[in-house]
Amino acid sequence: MSSHWLKPYMPRSLYARAALILVLPVIVLLLVVGIAFLQKHLEDVTGQMTRAASREVMLISTMIEDAETQQQALASIRPDLQALEMKARFLGVNEQPEIGARRWYDFIAPQVESELYARLPNLAAVALPSSKEARVYLKTHLGLLQLTFDRRRLSPAAPHQLIVTMVFFAVIMTTISFLYMRNQLRPITRLADAAQAFGRGRIVPYSPGGAIEVRAAGNAFLDMRSRIERQIEQRTLMLSGVSHDLRTPLTRLKLGLSMLPEDEAAPLQKDVTEMQSLLDAFLDFSRGAAEGSTEEVQPDEFLRQIVDDAKRAGHQAELIAVEGQGTVMIRPMAVRRAVENLIGNAMRYGSRAELSLFLNAKSMRIRVEDDGPGIPADQRTEAVKPFTRLDPARNQNQGSGVGLGLAIVADVARAHGGALRLSKSERLGGLCADIIIGR
Question: Does the keyword rRNA processing apply (predicted)?
């Protein structure tokens, strides 16, 4: 049988699920023991004791049947009252049985009363005001007879004590278990926080701890983090080195071309310029999300500065909306490069760029929209891959790039624990690019 219907009702955190696993058996055990005790033991014992007390009350009731006055009746039963440890008196003409309020936790009293009414046909009322005293009122030919005796002769003393004791010690043991469980789950929480921070481009101090299995997972995470950092560093050094070494021959080519006549050097100069742009893109891609250190920034001021710089460069860019407040932890240089790439693409394929900022408790979203031709839905996955060039019709105005602009943006977003999402702009009709970064 499928258990998918149960998932919406299950807690999501590990601590809550562990608490449920710990508490649920305790509750079930208390219910089973409590019900078994009440139905199998306490009710049987109470029935036996109540039947015995009923026989004694019937004996007293029978002995006063031949008495003509109340004084004679009391005198005739006085020896038996002493033997049975009971007290008796007749109520006055206008006196009513004093029942009183029953204790709320006296859950065995209803069974006692039902047993007495079933076995004493002349019973008028029953009073069980405390755990030490019981009163029964009998109808006789001389009036209402009140018999007072020890309540413990009808049922076990304080029958609720077992349940109270079980609940008390269950709460104590559960509290101790919760404290121990929290200490056991803390290393897992620390490991999850370190992994989440690393996924968002931050390195937080972490040392393995806890049980053997948790320590093994922590050591594996540290090894994985070290390998990823080495690979990123090696990729950056390799691309930076290659790009840097190629700048020297390009500079010599530019110098040689400057000596040639303009009509002969123009085509070659164009090729050298394109190679220079390609090298610049390689350097940007090699630096990628690893550029700079993580800092806490005010995102609205950060975006306004980028927009102001774009306007000074002659681009028609504008920050049109800011929703939410707060700060975020990002690599400012890397995110700036990603946003500038999107603005540059918007200017290359369209005439204007509009930026929006949306902040909530879990994420930050930077949206850049343009009025260009956009990217078809079936090509958006390919568009974010390195060195991918789309249909030339998209670039009919400015000439093609090197295919690294969106790849750099996607790399920066992933390094911050987020993603780059492409869609159609509802406002301008062109491309809508969302950089989503976790907070």
Answer: no
> For residues 354 and 370, what is the distance between their CA atoms, to the nearest angstrom?
7
Question: Do residues 387 and 334 make contact, with C-beta atoms less than 8 angstroms apart?
Answer: no
- From 194, 257, 256, 249, select the one nearest 226 (Cα to Cα): 194
- Phi (first) and psi of residue 70, to 5 degrees: -65, -35
Residue 427 located in a structural domain: yes
One-letter amino acid identity for 191?
Answer: L
pLDDT in tens, 267-305: 777 777 777 766 666 666 666 555 667 788 899 999 999
- Give the range of the structural domain holding residue 379, as residue numbers without chain letter: 291-438
**Residue 112 falls within a domain, yes or no?**
yes
In a domain, 170, yes or no: no
Give the CATH number for residue 375. Answer: 3.30.565.10
Query: The domain that contains 104 carries what CATH number?
Result: 3.30.450.300
Provide the pLDDT for residue 282.
64
